Amino acid sequence: MDTDFSADKQTTLFLLIIKYFSKENFKSLASSVPKTFDNSPLLHQGWIPISHICQINKVKKLISNENDLVSTLAKFNSKYFEMNQGYIKRTAEYEADAVIKEFLDWNVLSSCALHCSGLSCTTEELKEYFSKYGKVVNCARTNDGYLIEFDSASAMEKALLVDHVYEDEPIHVRVQAIQNQVKSLLPLQNQNKILEFELHGDTETLTKQQLKDYLDRLAQVADLDYEPGKTRGTIKFKQSVAQEIIKVAQKQGELVVQDVSIKLLPVTAQQELLCWKVFEEKQKLKPVVMEKKPTKQKLSKKEKKGRVGKQVKKQPKKIKVDDMDKLIAAMDF
């Protein structure tokens, strides 16, 4: 077994602990504790032996010893758990989905910053500009632009949802990963579908449809974040082919449409997750088109008589899969 207890494994392990101690699963966890612990006063107060948790199959595949579990809980400094004499206890009842969302907002979004390019100004001016989306905790120059860090996930999401112009100069904004703690927390069917791109040339006359039609030759495009005049954007493919497209593009050589060259860029796990969130939010902002309900045709007496006695086969109900299970299933063990 791989004994390197990486940040990826720590993240996965913490998500598992959240799941096991959640309102939905805690009774099952408590009832699985061996009878050898029945005499423990801590057990009857809601404490679960750490040694027992370490024997759960999914946990065993991640850790090499109990210290890995202890160090993980210490690292995330969770308000949901406390430890005492080899036992772990949840501090309150909680629903797994709510805690996971909170965890993702903190762990993924706060480990990212916005990278800005395409303009010339002072860091103070840029900080003041982005402050309308939320508190900016840091603004610094980089070799190829600026780095903006917010103090909250919601502020970063607001800044990602709009196009930016400062004193008639377009600001090109993308997610800048500071640390890559997770491989992917997206369900498997949503992974490997997103790429970023850079455009070099006169993009003022390049339309979104022209760019989409060209990229469709590589693979079918589901969505494209681009407007004429922009030099950066994001592609979402219908199939999980993003990494393969990078390889195809490298073999094919320069990609050019309407005298504008295209450079395709891979994304990190954090960028991939954020892109999905931004695409989803933009879909919500689109106006809803109401479709007319088809008018029911009146049946003649003869047609009504012919339908009497026919049994309508009921469609099986769709089973709703728990979001937490999707997240855990999407991870490598």
UniProtKB/TrEMBL annotation:
Pfam families: RRM_1, RRM_3. Keywords: RNA-binding. SMART domains: RRM. InterPro entries: La_HTH, La_xRRM, Nucleotide-bd_a/b_plait_sf, RBD_domain_sf, RRM_dom. Residues 290-317 are annotated as: Disordered. Residues 295-317 have a biased composition (Basic residues). This is HTH La-type RNA-binding domain-containing protein. The keyword RNA-binding applies. One of its GO terms (molecular function) is RNA binding. Residues 3-101 form the HTH La-type RNA-binding domain.
